[in-house]
Amino acid sequence: MLQTRLIAPADNAHQAPLLIKRLLLSGIRYEKTREIVYRDQLRYSYATLNERVARLANVLSEAGVKAGDTVAVMDWDSHRYLECMFAIPMIGAVLHTINIRLSADQILYTMNHAEDKFVLVNSEFVPLYKGIESQLTTVEKTILLTDAAEKTADLAGLVGEYENLLAAASPRYDFADFDENSVATTFYTTGTTGNPKGVYFSHRQLVLHTMAEASVLGSLDSIRLLGTNDVYMPITPMFHVHAWGIPYVATMLGIKQVYPGRYEPEMLCRLIKEEKVTFSHCVPTILQMVLAAPGAQGHDFGGLKMIIGGSALNRSLYEVAKARGIQLTAAYGMSETCPLISCAHINDELMAGSEDERTTYRIKAGVPVPLVEAAIMAADGTLLPADGESQGELVLRAPWLTQGYFREPEKGAELWEHGWLHTGDVATIDDFGFIDIRDRIKDVIKTGGEWISSLELEDLISRHPAVREVAVVGVVDPQWGERPFALLVLRDGQSLDAKGLKEHLKPFVDQGSINKWAIPSQIALVTEVPKTSVGKLDKKRIRLDIVQWQAAGSPFLSTV
After folding, report:
1. CA distance 484 to 495
2. Does the N-terminal peptide bond of residue 339 adopt cis geometry, omega within 30 degrees of 0?
3. Residues 302, 498: Cα–Cα separation, whole Å
4. How is 223-267 classified by DSSP, letter by letter?
């Protein structure tokens, strides 16, 4: 153990814990008149936000919420959700952000596993909640959230309706200090097998993550994305890794925030235009949905900056967005990492290169943000060189990574094997420090003894002018072990078959970008690619669908 010098503080020195309340209290000192906007229904100032957070804290405390209790929220992205992100952890309770896109059985599992005691339920989810209510084992009381005129619902243990309760509560609350390592939030991440797993984050972790995220988004000139004069609107659900943590950053800086509620493409386009949104973030499929909306046609999105994460950002989408005036920047993270790990940064050397070279780096996973260590690990735990060629599993260390899975110590031990958090992603790291995600370990395709990256193949296929969306998976092949299979959604009025796709990919084989075995011999033309609850490509479902199509001789299969 390294011997260092420790100096005892003065007896009366204040030991300031890193608590979420410090983030809230910062915003109002910068811009107390800036607005929090909810759809086309409500807007109020930062001064009112702080008052409403205090009112909510009083409502929860009077309803019996105690430090250490878990309080669940089932809502669309709203001002209410933002208030819960502060009030619940600030009274020492744990915020459980429920993924409302999971199945009813999965939601029931997560609520019982997290031991939720109080639940805030949007009226749109009351039928879903009623279907599992009798099987909930720990819930004691509920609060109704609604935009409707009807302010009541048939919920067991109903305390009342959110706005009515806040209106009757005191606008002042003395938020006490407590241990910064107290758990502040929890939510559940789904895998390909088994039940969802609970990750959790402390006040200290969330504050450090917020500070690092703010420094990256606002200080790196090549990707400066978010400053105090920007207007922020999330298009990543608030139940998904705290909307990537950016509501905490925006609130700390006093930035105007716009919350769209349910993700309706026309409403999103309207809010971007009318509220003059300049910064957002989402997964690629959601951006494609927004750009295809009628309200987006003919609109110049110039000035809009977006982070793309959750799935790989391909060059085709980058160029389409750029043509519409949107500056895209790739970033990387996962539920277990709070989530920010890396973000594309174009340094002086890259800036001196061509625009094509800069684009190549802007769509990679990026450079680790401050306080993050990233490495490439072989299966035996050996760290591999960061030479841009050596491939292995991306492993991480940072102050804000989840320390395990809630009530599943054996899975937590697997996550942290060899003292690094294992991402499950195959990657390289080059001498610029850039992380390049090659594939998920479970999605890499092995054909004829050669490894093929489904992400790389998706990027190349997406460059065909007829292709609007693509997903590539490996399917069992008796001769080659696996063969790549492409699922395609075509643009309106376009056509493409397996032979045409082969012709499109042959030049990339000639250039050495891919080998000849990477060309799919069979494709499927579909109207929609299956997605997960957070908008990522659902490759597990795609593989099952392909097996069924092949068995049935589906008419939308095309073979070379």
Report:
1. 21
2. yes
3. 37
4. G----TT-EE---S-TTSHHHHTHHHHHHHHT-EEEE-BS--HHH
Tell me the pTM.
Answer: 0.88
Burial of 384 (0-12, 13-18, 19+ CB in 10 A): middle
244 is catalytic: no
Phi/psi of residue 450, nearest 5 degrees = -110, 140
Residue whose pair of structure tokens reads 């070279």 in the numeric block = 357
Of 138, 189, 359, 360, which is the active-site residue?
A: 189
79-106 pLDDT, tens per residue?
999 999 999 999 999 999 999 999 899 9
Lowest mean pLDDT among 16-20, 66-70, 138-142, 542-546: 542-546
Residues 6 or more apart whose Cβ sits within 8 Å of residue 476:
482
CA distance 325 to 260: 21
Mean pLDDT of 51-72: 98
Q: Are the CB atoms for 50 and 24 separated by under 8 Å?
A: yes
pLDDT at 547: 84
| Tens digit of each residue's pLDDT (9 = 90 or more) over 211-261 | 999 999 998 887 789 999 999 999 999 999 999 999 999 999 999 999 999
DSSP state of 533: T
The single residue of 35, 48, 357, 451 carrying the catalytic annotation is 451
Q: In this structure, what token pair is assigned to residue 510?
A: 């000639």
- 115 catalytic per annotation: no
Q: Region 136-141: what's the mean pLDDT?
A: 98
Assess whether pLDDT exceeds 90 at residue 295: yes
Burial of 352 (0-12, 13-18, 19+ CB in 10 A): exposed
Nearby residues of 443 by Cβ (< 8 Å), 6 or more positions away: 454, 455, 473, 474, 539
Which two three-digit tokens encode residue 298?
């003919």
- Going along the chain from its start, the domains and CATH numbers come out as 20-33+43-201 (3.40.50.12780), 444-559 (3.30.300.30)
- DSSP assigned state of 354: -
Beta bridge partners of 536: none
Q: Which amino acid is at 242?
A: H
Q: Is position 336 annotated as part of the catalytic site?
A: yes
Give me the residue label for tokens 């407590």: 178
Q: Is 189 part of the annotated catalytic residue set?
A: yes
Helix (H) or strand (E) holding 212: helix 203-219
94/198 Cα distance (integer angstroms): 13
CA distances from 498 to 103, 119, 321 (A): 35, 50, 27
Q: What is the DSSP string of 273-329?
A: HHTT--EEEE-HHHHHHHHHSGGGTT---TTEEEEE-SS---HHHHHHHHHTTEEEE
* Polymer length of the chain: 560
DSSP 356-406: HHHHHHHTS-BEEPTT-EEEEE-TTSPEEP-SSS--EEEEEE-TTS--S-T
Given 151, 446, 506, 536, the catalytic residue: 446
From the candidates 51, 161, 275, 336, give the one annotated as an active-site residue: 336
